[in-house]
Write a structure and sequence with these properties.
Layout lengths: L3 E2 L8 E7 L4 E6 L4 E5 L7 E5 L5 E4 L5 E5 L2 E6 L4 E4 L11 E8 L5 E7 L7 E6 L5 E8 L2 E6 L5 E6 L4 E7 L6 E9 L8 E7 L5 E6 L3 E6 L4 E7 L4 E8 L5 E7 L5 H6 L6 E5 L13
Antiparallel strand pairs: 1-24, 2-3, 3-4, 4-5, 6-7, 7-8, 8-9, 10-11, 11-12, 12-13, 14-15, 15-16, 16-17, 18-19, 19-20, 20-21, 22-23, 23-24
The structure holds calcium ion (CA).
């Protein structure tokens, strides 16, 4: 199992990959570059399809078009016109240091996304969910760097990562209501001697979870009910930010990375930092769920 470069685009802070099954395109963002890229599997280069400062996640909308998160909230995106419009009131505008980070839709089409303290020190962030009809709810507070999200194949468990905790948490999840309860630790990076911080994540159809290692140069696969490491995929870039299953059979794992936070010496030794990678991991993943709102 190895990863190869998927396109010749280099991002400052690549993130937020999502697979649009309607068109067979992987969308991903460069948060620091303020760009949304479209990657057609097999193409050498990616198109910049929209530019907006601080864009941190992008998802297809069931009714057409896309939704995204950027600094203070959730927005709609029309790729034909390039128009970006708020879906909710802005969030945390009084918190100078805060901004939205990773986001993803659950199997019922609710858009979950959390905020982070840009100094990565204060637990001033929260996890939000945007329901159909633009009802925004704060679900968790005391979050420092809100990151990866995922749901089990039976839709009974939600996974969530607040990176500095170095843990993947699990919750009992109710598909009809979106409520979460019974928080537990699914994976503990410290106890299992892992390098780096957990960042973005994805779930495969065997119920195993794939976690990107920020500062660890790898993606790891875990059995989340036992906290056991199953596999390690080395990535030739240290800041591995997120993962997403894509392709017609959902058996290609795309991996975003960053140049952000690396000094010149490290960048010289890791010239692929910031690239989009792909790996045939030999297992199928769960789909990217579109936003139903
Ligand atoms: Ca992230």
């Amino acid at each position: 199992m190895n990863a190869k470069v998927a396109s010749n685009v280099t991002a400052e802070l690549g993130e937020g990959p999502s697979w649009d099954a309607r068109t067979g395109i992987l969308y991903w963002v460069d948060i620091k570059g303020g760009r949304i890229y479209a990657h057609k599997p097999g193409n050498e280069s990616d198109d910049i399809v929209a530019s907006t400062k601080g864009v941190s996640s992008v998802v297809p909308r069931a009714g057409g078009g896309f939704a995204l998160t950027s600094r203070h909230g959730f927005y709609s995106l029309d790729l034909k016109t390039g128009r970006i419009e708020p879906l909710t009131e802005e969030v945390e505008i009084d918190l100078e240091s805060n901004k939205f980070n990773d986001g993803k839709c659950d199997p019922a089409g609710r858009y979950w996304a959390g905020t982070m303290d840009q100094t990565e020190k204060s637990p001033s962030g929260s996890l939000y969910l945007l329901e159909k009809g633009s009802k925004l709810k704060k679900v968790l507070s005391n979050i420092t760097v809100s990151n990866g999200l995922g749901w089990s194949p039976d839709h009974k468990t939600m996974y969530y990562i607040d990176s500095p905790t170095k843990k993947v948490r699990s919750f009992d999840y109710s598909l009809p209501t979106g409520e979460i309860s019974n928080q537990q630790v699914a994976v503990d990076f410290v106890r299992s001697g892992q390098i780096g911080d957990p960042d973005g994540m994805a779930v495969d159809n065997e119920g195993m979870i794939w976690v990107a290692h920020w500062g660890g140069g790898r993606v790891t696969r875990w059995n989340p009910s036992k906290g056991v490491l199953l596999d390690t995929l080395q990535i030739p870039a240290d800041q591995v930010t997120s993962v997403c299953f894509a392709g017609e059979n959902l058996d290609e794992l795309y991996i975003t990375t960053a140049r952000d936070g690396l000094d010149e010496k490290t960048l010289a030794s890791k010239p692929l930092a910031g690239s989009l990678f792909v790996s045939n991991v030999g297992v199928r993943g769960l789909p990217t769920y579109p936003f139903e709102g």
